[in-house]
C-alpha cells in the first residue's frame, strides 16, 4: 500500500494531570481515507489523547502537525475551524436545546444577525434524514433516548463542515479529520451498521477517521489500522489485517501468555448447597446486558475481562449501587429488590469498591472511625456502639488483618494503599457479611499486601463466606476462584467451574473472541 | 411565525407537564387570577381603571429592567447579587454628577451605564477566568458598590435638575386616556430587545447552551468565556439602566437606595419560571414575575388595612410555591 502523507501527525505527546502522567511520549498518525482504531484498556489514555489534540486540555509536551504544518490547538472551537470534528466520549450536547440547535449551534444560518429558524430546522432535518433517522428536530434533545442523542452528536460532528456545503447536502465538506470516541456504546446493532456505512462513505471521500471502541469485533469490521496504548504509553501501530484478536488483547493487557500460564493454579470444591445469591436476567441499559449468576456460601466466583468490559457494572447491580432495569435477584432464597446499597447490606452483602479513595474511605477520619463506620450505619445512628466493645473490635481487626501502623488513632489518609484497603475490608468484615464483593481489591497495592489479601479471601471462603472477586489480573482470578465468569463488551460471555483445563490462554481466547465453545 | 424554537412541537396533553413554557403560563394565569380577584373585590374603588394596570409598569419599570438583566445571568446558571448595589450606586453617581458637578443628564447617563457595564464585565471576567463561584464574586460586587455609594456621599442627594424633572413627569399617552412614564416605556423596550437577543441571535442561544451544560457548550466549540463575561456585562448594564430609571422615579440619590433589590429581581425571575440551574426559562416569564410581585403590592395598598410587610410574606409564599413547582418539573424531566 502506497502511503500518502499523513493528514495528522502527533509526536512525543506528553500530558500530566496534577503530577500523574496520563500520556507519556505517545506518537500517533492518521492518514487521509483511513479508519484508524485507537485501542487500550479503560484509563489507557485514549480520550486524553483526543482531548489534547482538540484543545480541551493543554499539551504538556510534543508536537502536532496537521497537513504538514505544525499547529497549536488551544480550544475545541479552533479544532473545528482546523477541520477536526469530534464526538467526545461523554455525550457533549445540551439537553435543553432542540435537536436542530444541537446539530447546528454555532453555525446557525443567520440573516443580518437574525437566526433563520425555519432554515435551521430544514437543514437539521436534512442532515438527520441523511443518516436514516426519523425524528422531530424541534423537540428538545432531552426528550430523546440516549442512543438518539449519541447519533445526534455524530450528526453534529459529521455535519460540521461549512454551512453552505451542508446546505447542498454535502454533509462532511470541510471536515478532514473525524474523531469518534466510543460512539457506539449505547447504539444498537442497526444503528452501528448505519454509522459504519457513513464512516465508510466518508473514508471514500478522503476523510481520516479516528475511531475508539471497546467492542473488538467492531474494530475488525470497520478499521484499517490501529494504534494500541497501555498506561499512557504507545505500544504499537499495526494494520488490522496483521494482528489477530488474541494478540491484540495481549498487547492491550501487556502480558505474555506463558507468563500467565505459569502463575495459574486451581482448586475446585464442588458445592451442592442452594446458592446464596442468584441473579436471573439482571441487566442495566448502557451498563451490562442481561446475565444469570449464582454464588454459593463458601464459593469464590472470579470475574475476568478487560477493564471496561462490565465487571464493575455487574458488581454494582448485585450491591444495589445501581438499579437494574430488568431481571431478578434472589438472596438467601428470597427475591430481593435492590434499590439502594442498604437493601443489599441488610441482606448480608458487602461491596469493596474499586475506588477506595472516592467511594468508601474517609481519609480525614481515624482508622478506628473508618472501621466502625459500616457497623454503626447498620445499627442506626441513634444507637452508638459502646466504647469498650468498639475498641475491642477495632483492635481485633487491626491485628487480624495486620493493619500497619497498628494505631487506631492514625489518620486513614496517611496509610499506604494496601493498608487503606485493609481498613475498608475490616469495616465490611465487622458487619459479618455473607457475600463479599471485591472489585479490584489488590489494584495499586504492594506485593506483600496483595498476598495477604488473597490469603484472607481463601480463609473467608473456608469460613463459608461467598466471595465475588473481580480483578484485571487474570492469574489472581484463576488462582483464587472456584468458578469463573468472563465478561466481554458488557456481557457475561462465559461461566465455568475452575479446573485444570481452565487456563489463562483459554480465558484470553474468550476475552478476545467472546466465544465459549 | 413560530416565535421560539420548539414551541409547537408536541400537541399531546400528556407532555404538557414537561413543556418548558408551562411555568410561564402558570405565572401568567396567576396574574390574571389575582387581577380578577382585585377587580372583583375593589370594583368600587376604581381597580378596573386602566391606569391601575399601567401603574404596574410605571412603579415597577426599574425592577423589570434589573430582572431582565438577572434573567440573562440565571439562564447561564449563574447569579448576580450586585444588582441592588449597582442600582444604588447609579442613583448616587447620577445625583452627584448632575447636582454637585452640574453635568447635563445627557452626558451623565452614558457614564453611569458604562460604569455599570464595566463593573459587570469585571465580575464576569473574574468568575470565568479564575473559576470562582458567581455567588462569591457578585457578593463582593454587592459590598464594593454599596461602599462606593458612601465614598460619594453619606447623605442623600435630592435632584432638582429640570431635565430630570421633566423626564420624570412626562406622560406617554395611551389610547383610552391612560398613560405610561418614560421609564416604563424604556423598560418595555429593554424587555423586547432582550427577547429578540435571547431567541434570535447566536449570542442568545449560547446563553441557553451554557445554562444547559457548560462543559458541552465548550466541547461543541462555542465561545463560552466571551458569552459568560458578556452575560454579566449585560446584567451590570441593566442594573445601571435600572438605577437611572429608579433615579427618575424617586428623583434623588441615596446610599441606601435599592438595598436588597437583587433579591426582588431574582424572585421575579424565578416566579417567572426560569430555572435557577440555568438553561430553561423565558424573559417573558420575567415580565409576568415582575407584574405578579407588583400586583401583590397594589392589592395590599387597595386593601388599606394590611401593613406593607404582607407584601414580603406573600412574595415569600409565592416564591416557595414556584420553587416547588420547578423542582417537581425538573424531577420529572430527569426520569
Ligand atoms: N481531567 C482529568 N483529571 C485528572 N485525571 C484525568 C483526567 N482525565 C483523565 N485522567 C486520567 O488519565 C488517565 C487516562 O484516562 P482516559 O484518557 O480517559 O482513558 P481512556 O479513554 O483510554 O479510557 C486515567 O488514569 C484518568 O484517570
Ligand atoms: Mg475514554
TrEMBL record, chain A:
Keyword Oxidoreductase in record: no
InterPro entries attached to this UniProt entry: AAA+_ATPase, ABC_carbohydrate_import_ATPase, ABC_transporter-like_ATP-bd, ABC_transporter-like_CS, P-loop_NTPase
Superkingdom of the source species: Bacteria
Gene3D superfamilies, sorted: P-loop containing nucleotide triphosphate hydrolases
Source species of the chain: Actinacidiphila cocklensis
ATP-binding found in the keyword field: yes
Taxonomic classification: Bacteria, Bacillati, Actinomycetota, Actinomycetes, Kitasatosporales
GO molecular function, one term: ATP hydrolysis activity
Coiled coil: none
PROSITE patterns: ABC_TRANSPORTER_1, ABC_TRANSPORTER_2
SUPFAM superfamilies (alphabetical): P-loop containing nucleoside triphosphate hydrolases
Domain ABC transporter, first and last residues per copy: 8-256, 271-514
Protein name: Galactofuranose ABC transporter putative ATP binding subunit
Alphabetically ordered keywords of this record: ATP-binding, Nucleotide-binding, Repeat, Transport
From TrEMBL, chain B:
Membrane-spanning ranges: 22-40, 52-75, 105-128, 174-198, 229-251, 263-296, 308-325
Compartments, record wording: Cell membrane
Record InterPro entries: ABC_transp_permease
Annotated gene: yjfF
Molecular function GO labels: transmembrane transporter activity
Pfam families named among the record's database cross-references: BPD_transp_2
PANTHER family (alphabetical): ABC TRANSPORTER PERMEASE PROTEIN YPHD-RELATED-RELATED, INNER MEMBRANE ABC TRANSPORTER PERMEASE PROTEIN YJFF
Keyword Nucleotide-binding appears in the UniProt entry: no
NCBIfam families per record: PRK11618.1 (NF008630)
The keyword Transmembrane helix is assigned to this record: yes
Protein name: Galactofuranose ABC transporter putative membrane subunit YjtF
Topological relation to the membrane, as annotated: Multi-pass membrane protein
CC annotations in GO: plasma membrane
UniProt keyword annotations, A-Z: Cell membrane, Membrane, Transmembrane, Transmembrane helix
Domain of life, per lineage: Bacteria
